[in-house]
Structures are given as C-alpha cells and as structure tokens.
Amino acid sequence: MSANNLLLFLSARGEGSWQQFRAAVEELHLVETETGSSQRDEDGNETGGLPLYQLLRLNLQRLGHVEFFGGASESDWRVSPPALAVSGQRHGKLGVLAGARSPCLMRRFQEAAATLRVETLPFAASPDQIRIFAEDQRALAEVAERAGLLGQDDAPLAILASLPTVDNLSLLREAEVPVGKEWAIDQFSTRTLGWRAALRENAVGATLGLFRFSLRHRKHLLLCVKGRAFEVPGQVGKFIALRHNRRRVFSYEVSDEVLCVPAACRPPFLVERALILCSGKLPSYDRDSGKLRYYEVNRTTAELACALLRQESR
Amino acid sequence: MEKILLIGAAAVALTVTFAVFARRMRRRHKTVVPSAPPEQSRVQASLPGDRGQETVSAAIEHLSTERDEKSGVEGSPVDGEELVEPPTDEALMAPSGNDEVCKDDTAGLEEGEGKTVQSPESPESAIGGETQVDVEVPGENEAVSNLVTRDSLGATIASPADASTEIGAARLDLTTDTEEVKGVEALAGSVARPDAAAPAAPLDSSVEAETRETAPVRTAQAADSEREDSGEGLTRAQKTTRVPRQYRPVVRTAPKRDLPSVPEKERVQRERALALEVRLVFEPGGLCRVSLLPQRAADLPQELLVSSMEGEVELAALQEDWYEEVSLSDVGKLLRTGIEWEAALPEGRTVRWSLSGREIYVLAPHDCFSGFVSASRLVLGEQHVVLSALERGADVLRAIEISGSPEPEVLSAADGMPEGWIGFRRVIPHKPVTPSLAGDILDALCPLADTEIVLKGGIRIGRSTWLKEYPPMIQLRGHDDSRAEVLIDGQGAEKDESGAYTSPGWDLPGDHSIWCVSASKSYSIGVGLESWEPWDAYAWSWGESQAEPEFSRPAICGVLVRSPRNVARGRRPAVRSASNPILIGTGVGEIEICRTPPGVRTNVAIGFPSFDPVWAVPADALHSDKRVAKVLLVGSPRLPEQASFASGADSAPKTKHARRERTLRARAWCSVILDAGRKGLQPEPNTAEISAVWKQYRRTAKLVWRTLR
Fold first, then answer.
1. What is the C-alpha end-to-end distance of chain B, expressed in Å?
2. CA nearest to B241, candidates B223, B215, B268
3. Which residue of B has its CA nearest to A77?
4. How sure is the predictor about B34, in pLDDT bands with cuts at 50, 70 and 90?
5. Rounded to whole angstroms, how far apart are CA atoms B108 and B442?
6. What is the ipTM of this complex?
7. Is 0.80 topped by the overall pTM?
C-alpha cells in the first residue's frame, strides 16, 4: 500500500475529520511501507520524529491534492478538485496532475494523454506525481477537457499573484502574550535560523521578533511588535523577522533554474505549492548545504516568490 | 369363537375410535391430556377449554413463508415464537427430503430410528439455513404432543411451520447483512438455549397456534381469575394448554442462492417465548443441583405466577433480566419432555417460557450466574458440564472424547443428578468437530472451528464497503482447515496461493456475502465520489484559519485560482506580463485590465476576464516605446464582432446604468485599440494574417468610436 491509495481513499470520501485521516493512514498500512527520506517539517527540521501522518498531510498540502484545517471549509480535510496545473518550461509546456483521483478518472486521463509524454514520479510519503508534456498550452487544455479535469494556466504565477506579501500585518490577528512561568519561550534567531531560549520580557519588549510559546501539547507562534502580539503561521513569521533584519536567504541559479533556500526557512506552503508546480517535483534536501532545492523555477516565478516573501534572490 | 371375534372387533373399533378422537382433540384443542401434577409444584394444567377452533386455515396464516421446495415443509418456529402453527395437510403428507428445518434443533431425530423426537428448537444460529430433520414418533409418550408423528403413510411430519417468518426471512437476508447476521445470531443464540426456543408445536399437528381469536379468550379468563393487585400481584393463570416442544438441532448449511427474502411488510410479527435456561450449581460437599432459570422481560412484574401442565410456579425477580431459579422435583422428566410455562399479565397479554425437551444439555459458565447455564454447543477451550440421559451416556462420552477433551468426571444420581440423567464434568474440548449434515442432538457436542472471516487490504471507504477495483482479500483465520467450504454469494470460492478466496463476481459493485461452516460475513463494493467541486480555500491569506475572507481578492483551491467573490463566478484567471496588462476580446466592450499584486514589484499581472482574450495591449500605448512595445496575440486570431454595438442589437441593456456601463466599456475598448494603432504598435507575431486581423480591430474600433460620438 502506498500514499497513492491514501489519495484514492481521500478522493472517494471527499472530506472528513482528522481522525478519519489518521485512521486511514493506519489501515492502509502506510507506516509499514512509507519510509521517509530526507523529510523535513515546516521548520525545516529532520522529520525523523515526525509521525508519518503528519508527513503525509504536509506533502498532500504542498502538492495541492488536499486542503487541511483552515482551508478545508467545515471539515478537517477536503480533497481539491482534480486539475491540470500548466506551467511554461524552457521547451514547451508542463502539466501537473493535482487534486482528487479515482480509478475511473485515472483511466480517462491516460486515454486523453495517450499521444503525449506522461511521466510518473514516486516520492516518499507522497502520492506519485504525474507530469505531462506538450508543445503548447492548447494540447494540455484538450487533455484536461477530455479527461474531465479543470485546467489552470500559468498555475505557479497565478497562485503567487493571488497571495499577499508576507509583511501585510493587516491580515494578522492580534493575540495576548501567554502569562505564566510554565510556558517555555523561544525566539527565532535570524542569524542562526534557529530557536533560542528567551524570556517573556524579551517578547513584550521586542521591536519585532518571532516567539514560540510552548506548554506541553500547546504551542503558540506570536509575532511581537512593540508590545503587541499577533498570531502568525510559523514560516510567515520567520520571513517577517528576516525582512525586519534584512536577512536574505534565497538564492537562485539562473542556468539551472533552481531556487534554493535554507531548510529552516522553508517557504509558507502556498508559496511552496507554486514552486513545486513549476516542475511537479518535491524539493530535494541538500545535506551539505542544508538547503532545499526547487527545480525548473523560471526567473519570473522566482522573483515573484522572493518579492512576496520580501527576499531578493541572489 | 364368535365371542372372541366380537371382542377383538370391539377392541379394534375402540382403538381406532380412540385414535381418531385423540387426533381430533389434538387438532381442536391443541393440548394433551396432562399428566398427574406432581405434589410439590402444585402445577395445574390450564385447559383453555374452548380455545376456539384451531383450524388449519387459521394456522396457515401464521405459517412461515419460508418453505422448502422439496419438502414443502415449513421451518419450525424459532426462539421466542409464540405462534406455532400446525403444519398443513400438505406439509403433513410431504416427504422429508432436504427439508428446510425450523430453527429448532431436533434432538435425536434420526430418520427411521424411531427415537423420541424432541420438540424443535433453534439453539444454533440460523445462519446458512437449517435442515429439517425427519422425525418419528415413538410409540409411547405421555407428552404426545411433543412428538413428531409419522402418519400411516409413512410420511414424515415435519416440525411445525417455522413461525418466525421474521427470522426465517432474516435467515435469507443474513447473507447480505452482517448486522442482521449478528442480530439473528443473538436471537438464535437465545434460541439455542434448550429452553429458549419458541414453542415449536409438536409435529403431530397438535401444535398450538395462538391465534388472535383465542388469545383474548384466554386473557379474559385470566382477567376473571385475577387477584387484587393487578400490577404486582401474582396472577393466577389458567393452566397452559401449550405442550412442550422437543429439541431439534440446527444444521448449519450453506445459504441457498436466489431465494428471495420475505419482504419486510409481509413478515409476520410473532411474540416469542422467553428463555428457560437449565442451570447446574455445585454445592459444598460436591453435590450438584439442577434448576431452571426463567428469563425476565423488562415489562414483567417482580413476582409472577406461571402455569404449566404440571401446575403453578411462583417466580420472583432476581435481576432485571432474570427471575430466581426454580427447582422442581421432577426436573429429570421435564428435561426430557420439555417445559411450557404461561402467565397472564394484567394488561391482557400473556407471556410464555419454553424449554424444549432433549436428551443432552450442554452447560457452560455464564456471565450473570455462577455455575453452569445451558449453552448451544461446546466451545473450544471452555469448560462445560454435559447432562445426558442415561441411555445416551455412551454416545455423549464418545462425542466428548472426539472433541479432544480430557476425560470428564462422571456425575451420577448420588452426586445430585436428576433421575434418569448422568452428568459429565470438566468437559474442555480442544478440537473442532464438524457437525452432522442431517442434524443430531450430538451436534451440540461438536465445537465449531474458531474460524473467523477476515477482510484485509483493499481500500475501505465505508464501514464494510470497499472501493471498486480495490476489494478486500478474503481469508479465513483460526482453525486451519484447508477443506473448509467457503461460499461467496452462494458460489464456491477458490483459494489462491496467498490464501485469499475469490469467486466469480466477488469484486463487482454491490453487496456480497461470505459463508463458511462457522462464520459468515458480508461486504460491499462501492464507487466513491466522482465529482469534486472547488471552493474558496484561501482568499488573500497564508493559510491561517482565522483570516477574514477578502471578497475583492482571488481565492486559491488546490492548484486552482478562483475569481474574486465580487465578480462573476467561473472566470478563469489570466496571467499576463505587466507590460501588456490590457486584454481585448472579440466583442466591443470586452476589455479586462490585469493588475499586479499590491505592494510587490513584479512584472506579473493577473485578471479575470469574462471573455476569451485575443490581444494583450500595453497599458499606456501612446507613451510606450514602439520599438519594444507590441500588441500580443494571446488567443486564436478571431475577427471582431462586426459592429454589434453600433447597430443597436437586440441584446442592448435595458437599464440606464447598464447602458452607461456598456458605453463606457465600449469607449475603453475602442480607445485602447485606437491608441495602440495611433502609436503604430505592431502585433506579435507579426504575420500577414495576424496583421490583417489587427487591422480589422482598428477599423471596427474607429467605426464604433464614431457611433459613440
């Protein structure tokens, strides 16, 4: 059994609870078959200790197959409609199959794409990525229509162009700084790109800093700005802090069209989704440099991603 | 000589007359001549008196709809069945063959052996159907009504019709529904207890059928004899006229295909008798004591007076579900012949308890009681006590040995066993034994293999539903019996190398059932969702759940970008270079301006045109560098719609605001094209065909512009 079956199950159900998702991971014996290789969590840490269901959830989210929690409407998870995400390549167009899958749909897709080159890429803790290549966008649009898929032209750019900048504080919700000595407090260091212990006074008095408050199973990530605190997604908060300290972490290899970022500064998942759709491949982790590498990212997409994250690629 | 002949003739005439009379009496009154009541119990047989003419026709309406085709005999009543109909004449005359058995097991019913026939009972689950056993009436029996009679034609009179159409129907439905299986199993389990079966009417047609006509009569009689306390007080009921049944073992056979189940609306609801269990307790000193445990329903009073042919018995509640045990002096005889108790309730109802008579009782530990309580059969690994009629002791001992049990301890009358009975203590079977196909009381000593049907693998999308093309693997877990017969949807299943069973059509969409001798299961194959609708998962947010949705911003769903909520739905996004953000369509007024993300310095702009764009034009063509700026062809090179605006087509908007909006859009459309033309911007690709198309747009724009002026 593989994560492909998990996606088939999720697609058959449509939406459900977190318990159902976890139960499906167990029942499909994915623990026995999925071996995580160079998996990292949202903080960019090695996921040796991360449960498989969390890895699966993160990958399904990154690849645009399933939305979880806040994006899943009234459920804990909800499968995205099947779509062909089209992006421009150096030579021709690339279509990446994303969203729900069913045996019937997959047969239709195979029949519709019979005349084009189709590639299936396996990844650990993730459903297989299916890529289809064509000379022009029209061919891919026809494939999508025949297979009953929705089409999204210029998917990476369209997603990025629909996102706010990371430092748009008007989108953040103000919160209270937790009180109590039992809270473990850490501050994100833009220098080391890691967490260091801090005090509540640091958080309250910080001009701008990202703080993590932990108490047993509870964890709060707060952006503390001059006495005020805002709830913020972890990766968004890191880039806000990096922006504040004018720290640049992105690098772009023009010749290879590879965008690199330290694993600790993994982009927010919507930005990462756009970057992954450029190639249809999950980023690889370079142990030597400690960086994530996103492939086949054209310059325009890389620049827009960096601009949204208030980073300039080197 | 003549005297001798006369005497002989008279004797024959008397015998015949008596037989006819007895037969008529049995048919009419459905009772038997009660034996002398024992001194202690003060049980009085309740003669219903004029219970009404129990006609065969009246009984027919209660007959089970389940009828074996071969025998035409209907199954016997099941546990709790109140109505035990006499078989029809046809049934009486029908040959036995592979008859559908009533649920009730029939102890010792072996064709042609002339053994005492026990009243039917259903100790076993009805799963897979039962096989009716031919029974034969022994010559003697004081409880004539308990016995199956073989008529003069030699036809075997089957046990009474299976009054439980519900269970009978459920039996057929069992193959398709695990829940039903469980329910029926539970029911059958209760039936399985020797005394828990419904009063299967004696097979000699003296089966009593409680018709609706007679019940009120008895109720009235009971009411007449009611004492002061209508609620809690003991109600003196009339002697029951119901004759105890004989036990009939249930034979577990494979379900028959294509047998329609009884529709729900046609199933006859019958009142079931309560269980009357046999209990054995070992007392200090090593003696054992055999008693009866009457079941108690929730609506029954704490104290109750029940009647039987042997007299009256007072019941006192012990627990919510049970009355206190009852010790009877003649329990030995009653265990053979069976017991029927009846009580009238103040509200006019009657409640019955039934224990079918038999020669062998299997007792096992009970959750609610100490000692050993009657069970349907031996269970592997469990300790049991087996009660056996003296004459069957050797058979029982042999069967116990076959089950792999260590040598049991024998209990005799000196140990407290009832008269005529012998007990076997510490019976612990370790080997499963296949029960007989014909049904035998000794089947109760055949522990079934602890086999479990396991459904593994596949993709389960529901409680017992698997996704089409991803069915489960069907395997047997437990006792390894490679010869075990497995049926899927009534068809023999083949076992492959992996140990999975398959049969034709086993993985097709629909409901399926699996059957083996000791278990059954059902599953379904279904199709999951095949259409998925997009929704606004993230609108101008980074994925946090608390973000307020932005109605003027596009939303993301998977890899899709959806138009903002404040514009018409269904528009697909168009991503353009910021240098050519204006999209032009074929229709006059089809213009969309793509915008760059706010606060971002980028060359990317996004818009949501309601049309299929043809051109992308620079924002400020008049001030652009015509050496660099181009009019980009972004769609198929289609000609403009010829002057549809200028001609005042019928599609003109009706309201003033709409007309103004349309005019403004038309002006913008014309202005962008004319400015680009005025600047001299060239189309790209700059082929003759495309240039000609662009020229046509300029002409149309000029014409419309003049019209607007």
1. 145
2. B215
3. B537
4. very low
5. 8
6. 0.93
7. no
